[in-house]
Specification:
Blueprint: H1 9-25, H2 32-41, H3 61-68
């Protein structure tokens, strides 16, 4: 099972702001497949993973991929 933790409110607000900017510019990738491709290509700058994804196995490879790149 993946480790879960609480994100501080100030960090969470900065993440929301970055996502809003990326969404308005059309540079956001949504979904596990698009995110995986962006990480592998080296174009991902920020990867935000929702805490309520089920099954968790779907997203468990994302932190490992981010660490490798």
């Amino acid at each position: 099972m993946a480790e879960k933790f609480e994100v501080p409110k100030d960090v969470l607000n900065k993440i929301y702001e970055a996502i809003t900017i990326a969404k308005s510019t059309g540079k956001i990738r949504i979904g596990v497949n698009e995110t995986t491709k962006a990480i592998e290509r080296g174009t991902a700058k920020l990867v935000a993973i929702a805490s309520d994804v089920t099954p968790e196995e779907v997203i468990m490879h994302l932190p490992v991929l981010c660490d490798e790149k």
